[in-house]
C-alpha cells in the first residue's frame, strides 16, 4: 500500500496474545490499514469498522488465495506457514464470486432454521446436565474447561452427528489447529490429524446416515443430478469449517461473557434487576471481546483506494474483527468498557457481507443459555483470582482465557436455580 509508512517495519502480531491490548491501541489510532506481520506473512490489518465493513462487502476483495494471493500461487505458503490450513481449505470460507455463491447455496440447506431450532433442546439439555455435574464441585473450578468448552463440543457433536466415542478426540484435534504458537511441524501434524478424523466421520455417516448435518452434506455431495454437487474435498473442508467455527468461537464467547460479568458485578446486577437481558450480555460480549480477534485472509483483486493510500492488487488484507468491534470510532471513550446497557452494541464478530457467519443464531442461543443458566444455578459464583491475572489463550486468532478459575458457592452453599 502506498503510504508514508511504506518501507517501515510491520507491526509484529504476538502469537501468544499477551500484547493484544497494545496492538489494538495501535490499530485504533491508525488512519487506515496497518502493515502487520502475522507469523511471518505480511498483510494490511483493517480495524476501522466502517472501512472493514466496506471492504468485506467489496467485490474487489477475495478470500480465494488460489486466484488472488501471489504468495500462495507461487508456493511461498504451502508447508511453510503455520496458518496454511486456515487459508487453504476448499469450502465457502475461501471461495470467491460464483464459486462462493454455489457453495453457500449448497451448504445453506444444512443450516435451515428448522435444523438450528431443533438444536435448542440440545443446548438446554446439555447446559442443565453440565450444571448438574458442577453442583458437587468443591474448591476452585475451571469453568472454561468444565463448562465453556463442554457445551459447544456437545452441541456441535449433536449437530454433526459425531459418535460419542469420537468426541474427546474431536475436541483435542480442533484445539490443536487453533494453536498459533505451534511449530510448523506441529501445525502440519495437526492438519493431518483433523483430516483423518473427518474422513473417518464421513465413512461412518455414509454407512449409517442419520438426521444430522454430516449426513445432509454427504447427500448433497453424492447427489450428482444437478451437476453442482459438493466435491469430496469441499465436503470434508465444509465439515472442518463447521467444527472449527462452531466450537472455539462459542467457547470464547461463553468464557468472555462469564468473565466480564464476574469482573464487574454491577453489570450482572443490571441483568438480575431487569435493566438488561442475557441476550444483551451476549451482544455486548461480542462487541467488547470478539471471540475471533483476527481471521486471515482477504486479498485485493485489484488496486483499492483506502484512507492513507492504496492496497495493491494481490496484497493480503487481515480483518481485525476484535479491534473493529471495540473501536472507539463508534463508541467513543466507553468503547473499552463492558456495558450491557449500552444502546448501540453493533459489532463485526460474525463478519459482514456475503461471508457472514451462518451459525450466528446458534452461537447466540448457546451463549445466552449457558451464561444465564450458570448464574441462575450458582448465584454466588465468583472469580478465584483477580480478572487481571487471567491468562489469555495463546492465539493470534482466538480471544479467550487459558483457564477461568471460580468458586461456585458462597458462604451458604447454593442448592439450586433461582428465578431469573
UniProtKB/TrEMBL annotation:
A Pfam family per the record: p450
PROSITE patterns associated with the record: CYTOCHROME_P450
Gene Ontology MF term list: heme binding; iron ion binding; monooxygenase activity; oxidoreductase activity, acting on paired donors, with incorporation or reduction of molecular oxygen
Keyword flag Iron: yes
Listed CDD domains: CYP107-like
Record keyword Metal-binding present: yes
This protein's UniProt keywords: Heme, Iron, Metal-binding, Monooxygenase, Oxidoreductase
Cross-referenced InterPro entries: Cyt_P450, Cyt_P450_B, Cyt_P450_CS, Cyt_P450_sf
PANTHER family: CYTOCHROME P450 YJIB-RELATED, P450, PUTATIVE (EUROFUNG)-RELATED
UniProt record similarity statement: Belongs to the cytochrome P450 family.
Descriptive protein name: Cytochrome P450
Organism of derivation: Actinoallomurus bryophytorum
